[in-house]
Amino acid sequence: MTEHESASLEGSTHPSIRRYLQSSAVMPPSAAATILDANWLRQLCLDAGADDVGFVEIDAETLASQKSNITKTFPETRAVISLVSRMNEEGVRNPARSLANLEFHHVTEGINEIARHIVIELRKKGVRAVNPAAGFPMEMDRFPQQIWTVGHKPVAVAAGLGQMGINRNVIHPKFGNFILLDTILINTEISAYNRPIDYNPCFSCKLCVAACPVGAIGTDGYFNFSACFNHNYREFMGGFIDWVGEVTDSKSSSEYRKQMSNSETASIWQSLSFGPNYKAAYCMAVCPAGDDVIGQYLSNKKAYIERVVQPLQKKEEIVYVVAKTDAEKWARTRFPHKRVKLIGSGMKPTTIKDFLKGLPLVFQPGKATNLTLRYHFEFSGSESSKITLVIADKRVTITEGHIGTPDLGVRADSQFWLKFLADTKFLPLGLITGKIKMKGQMKHLLTFGECFVA
């Protein structure tokens, strides 16, 4: 502000400007220079309706993986508040998934309102704060890259509110995984911070493995992201995109009905009208961890499995899987009474960056048994990059640059490679025109396609 502009403001007769200039003479211009009392802040959060709360300083080592996203969302962040809202486990466990989805939606709305109330109270104290959504809305312009602004789960772990279970849910020491999370970013330090708990409430009972209809959770702890994404989130982003394809590709209503039953169409309508519905979330439903929950399991494990796990396993329902994936094999083998429906995936990459980042998410370890292969990829054109991809021990690792001697080398124009991924019929044209060049045995490309199914 120039000296002239400053003098002009001081001479202003506008009431708001006059009151601000008068108050600023005795009040600090920002609460960022103060420190919030942790006990007061904790009580504020509990009084607002949170069931538990934890605090983390922005520079905490345990928050390092999230710091860039947090400061991009709210650059002034000095500390982070993590909130927990408990869910009713009986609703989440019920085979009637409308009960579970009602619980998810209501608790999400509730914790968003709790966070909003806290932000309002902090504002009255001169503290600047924002509360990213507990669920939706998210930054859909980024899809299929990261659409959330803050990762609530790693923040909650850093704030001492639980640890990640093999079901990829945060398990609270008391409430188990029957919780939803939210985060508040503030421009003020807090007098005391929490640290991660020193044990994991998850005791690897593997009930989540047994209940998942698509085998997304491996007995070895491996998580098959694409299997979970394509079934449980069928009516969310990628699945909705695939459904739109069903609509636009159908030449008539009768042709559409051959692909989509009336109940499936009605389910899409329900998700559009009342909020997207999860198809399973059985990994959460069956989890017995947490002090308030574990007694039901330990007192009579057989009865717990019969009451909680088996109704979900026995439920007759559609299981959505992409053809020739580990999920299809699991569903057909473990749940022959469920109807397996083959679908397209909403995870088709539109950039080379998407392609490379998505490879671990669509990797099928069951297809990689006894494989040890090294690939070199080099992309040119609108996007350029070199990577080394290794499949070994049913795992995939990706590193920048070319390392070692490859079993197959691939050089490709980036845009043409994306066309090939969308439709394999482009491969012969790519090889003829030189848009795609390979060095090594072609069978290794076929193997690559079997291991990474999108």
Report the uncertain regions: 25-32
Total tally of structural domains: 4
Q: What fraction strand?
A: 15-25%
Structural class, from secondary structure content?
A: alpha+beta
CATH topology of the largest domain: NADH Oxidase
Coarse shape? globular
CATH architecture of the largest domain: 3-Layer(aba) Sandwich
| Share of helix, binned | 40-55%
Number of strands: 15
What CATH first level of the largest domain would be assigned?
Alpha Beta
What's the pLDDT, averaged over the residues? 92
Helix segment count? Answer: 20
Widest beta sheet: strand line-up? 13-12-11-14-15
Outline the biggest β-sheet: 5 strands, mixed
Rg, Å, rounded: 26 Å
Distance between the termini: 54 Å
Structure characterization notes:
- The strands form five sheets. Strands 13-12-11-14-15 form a five-stranded mixed β-sheet. A four-stranded antiparallel β-sheet has the order 2-3-7-4, with helices on both faces. Strands 1-8 form a two-stranded parallel sheet.
- The longest helix has 28 residues.
- A hairpin with a 5-residue loop joins strand 5 and strand 6.
- With 454 residues, it is of the alpha+beta class.
- The chain has four domains: 28 residues, no CATH class; 157 residues, NADH Oxidase (3-Layer(aba) Sandwich); 136 residues, no CATH class; 100 residues, SCP2 sterol-binding domain (Nonspecific Lipid-transfer Protein, Chain A), CATH 3.30.1050.10.
- The chain contains 20 helices and 15 strands.
At a glance:
The chain has 454 residues and is α+β, with helices and mostly antiparallel strands. It has helices at 3-10, 15-23, 38-48, 64-73, 89-93, 97-124, 152-158, 207-211, 225-232, 237-249, 253-259, 262-274, 282-285, 294-299, 301-314, 326-334, 352-362, 414-422, 426-433, 443-451, and strands at 35-36, 52-57, 79-86, 129-130, 163-164, 170-171, 179-186, 189-190, 318-321, 339-342, 372-380, 385-392, 395-400, 408-413, 436-440.
